[in-house]
Design a protein that fits this description.
CATH topology of the largest domain: Rossmann fold
CATH architecture of the largest domain: 3-Layer(aba) Sandwich
Number of strands: 33
Strand content: 25-35%
Number of domains: 4
Number of helices: 11
Length: 579
């Protein structure tokens, strides 16, 4: 019954209720319940506002709510004040990047520009390294795409029919990885890399942020390490950032088109932290006037008059950063095929360091770190050492089945033949906090968890992405406390009025009379970082934020749902170049 009802509501919003210009109605919110929130209280709060749950993204612990459009602001305010949610935000819309009509260049000049032929002499890709194309679907009958497709998903209809509803996805998929060396049509940079079509973009050229986020998590959960998105929206989103962070935690990299607005206004998900944002270049290595740019751009790639696949088995010239992003995605898949032990951090650095520097020396806002060079990147990938040895992790404290009732430290060591670069602390499979040092020490707050047996686990990662882990079960018993006192929370750094650049550490101090169970840091109102144990420190990549004034706040929760919000800190982001 619930499934039938939800299907009807989706049909109503996309067919009968949408505005005449084709844009779907803005009738949805995305919410994430705070850590430890009572499920019945959450459901009651949602129902009391006349909202209903349309869908969920379990990997992000988020729910998509359907709300009457006229009541969006009222419902948002009420849910935010309830203290039950980490964030409440509109399920905004991203629009498929439009393409200029500029078809004057010869076929596939872009492959020669990035030295694809020389790169293919090193690696032609691998069927084990797929590329997720989050777009409008793919023409599965196209002779240059049919042999490259693996099973995907349609997030508009909730089924596996990924036939292209707009034409855009077929063109981006062919740019990334059309069938190559088959005597038909065009070549794709990702010669042997398969394509997973994930349909989120409607025939009217719009996509909900929640569908994009769901597709990102779907790809990551299915082992896809290269996720290509040629869609952009103009508002930041906690949900999109959370999906990117989730994919990153799975070893994947999201690569997104910068947009075709011809200005430096950030577009999303390209401007999300940890996303490779791609601007466009033309045959002369210039930035076309329509390409978006800005400090949040990481790389550039050919995007003007790209000859690629079109629906109905056809071919045509397409222009836009929509085609720059899948070129970078095709290259990323080639690199991971040549060296599958590369971490996502290593992959990003390799692509940046082996690009062709254009514009001002070093990083600049137009080309990022440079225009991609497939040959240089493959040379670097093939010469990188291969490490398949996982770290060894030992938890020295607490002892197995220890009884705990008050805050304590989970301590131990993580060692590796090449060195440990990151450690992660989990409670019952849910990541609580991260660190970079060994020996490690993580805070565990029993009051945040119900009485009973819980599993504490620590994972250690080396630079190649190999992971080792150790776990211990503990018995939690805490007395029920009637607690009406909210926590205390403040931002220790940066200071109000500070000027920041590069990677800036945001440090938060939070205390409570019983225990702090969650701290979330917001940059300009967007949830950028959440931790359930101290230290509460967020590494903010300010290159993904526009120059100028920004606001930082922090919110803390205790086990009973009392909340506190820090005094707002205003900082100014400035640029510091350097390659």
């Amino acid at each position: 019954m619930n499934r039938i009802l939800i299907s009807f509501l989706l049909v109503c919003s996309t067919v009968f209720c949408q505005p005449r210009n084709g844009q779907p109605a803005l009738d949805r919110l995305i919410v994430r319940a705070r850590q430890g929130a009572n499920a019945n209280a959450v459901s009651s709060a949602i129902g009391a506002q006349g909202a209903s749950i349309a869908s969920q993204i379990p990997q992000l612990n988020t729910h998509v709510l359907r709300v009457a459009p006229a009541a969006l602001a009222k419902v948002m305010g009420a849910l935010e004040k309830s203290g039950l949610f980490t964030f409440v935000e509109r399920d905004d819309l991203a629009r498929g990047t439009l393409t200029p009509n500029d078809s004057s260049l010869s076929a596939q000049w872009h492959l020669a520009k990035v030295q694809a032929t020389s790169a293919w002499n090193i690696s032609q890709g691998s069927s084990q390294v797929g590329i997720a194309i989050i777009d409008s679907g793919v023409d599965g009958t196209h002779p240059d795409l049919a042999p490259k497709l693996i099973a995907g998903y349609n997030f508009l209809l909730g089924n596996t029919n990924t036939s292209d509803v707009l034409g855009h996805g077929t063109a981006t998929a062919g740019t990334a990885a059309a069938a190559t060396d088959n005597l038909v049509g065009v070549a794709g940079l990702g010669w042997k890399n398969p394509i997973m079509p994930l349909l989120v973009l409607s025939s009217s050229n719009y996509a909900y942020y929640s569908d994009i986020a769901h597709a990102i998590t779907y790809a990551a959960d299915h082992g896809i390490r290269v996720i290509s998105i040629s869609i952009s929206g103009n508002t930041a989103s906690s949900t999109l950032q959370g999906a990117v962070d989730y994919a990153w935690s799975k070893g994947a990299v999201v690569i997104a088109s910068a947009g075709n607005n011809g200005n430096s206004v950030p577009n999303y998900p390209a401007a999300c932290d940890k996303v490779i944002a791609v601007s466009a270049t033309d045959v002369n290595d210039n930035l076309p006037g329509w390409s978006s740019f800005g400090s949040w751009v990481d790389l550039s790639a050919p995007g003007d008059s790209i000859y690629t696949t079109s629906t109905g088995g056809a071919y045509g010239y397409w222009s836009g950063t929509s085609f720059s992003a899948p070129l970078v995605s095709g290259l990323a898949a080639l690199v991971l095929s040549a060296n599958p032990t590369l971490t996502n951090t290593g992959l990003v650095q390799l692509l940046q360091q082996n690009s062709d520097d254009l514009g001002a020396p070093g990083f600049d806002q137009y080309y990022g770190w440079g225009r991609i060079n497939a040959y240089k990147a493959l040379l670097a990938a093939s010469s990188s050492p291969v490490d398949s040895t996982a770290p060894s992790v030992v938890i020295s404290s607490p002892a197995a089945f220890a009884s705990v009732s008050s805050s304590m430290q989970v301590q131990g060591t993580a060692t590796d033949n090449m060195g440990v670069v990151r450690t992660e602390f989990y409670v019952d499979g849910q990541m609580s906090s991260t660190g970079t040092s060994s020996p490690f020490s993580f805070s565990f707050v029993p009051a945040a968890w119900p009485n009973g047996v819980h599993t504490l686990m620590v994972k250690g990662y080396d630079a190649a992405g190999n992971a080792g882990s150790a776990s211990v079960n503990v018995s939690v018993w805490t007395a029920t406390v009637q607690d009406a006192s909210p926590p205390s929370v403040s931002i220790q750094s940066p200071q109000n009025g500070a000027t920041v650049s590069g990677t800036t550490q945001v440090s938060v101090n939070a205390t409570d009379n019983v225990a702090v169970t969650q701290v979330t840091v917001y940059i300009d109102g967007i949830a950028a970082y959440t931790a359930t144990a101290s230290p509460y420190t967020y590494s903010w990549n300010t290159k993904k934020s526009s120059p100028g004034s920004h606001k930082i706040t922090a919110k803390a929760w205790d086990a009973t749902g009392n909340t506190a919000v820090s005094t707002e800190v205003k900082v100014t982001v400035v640029r510091s170049n350097g390659r």
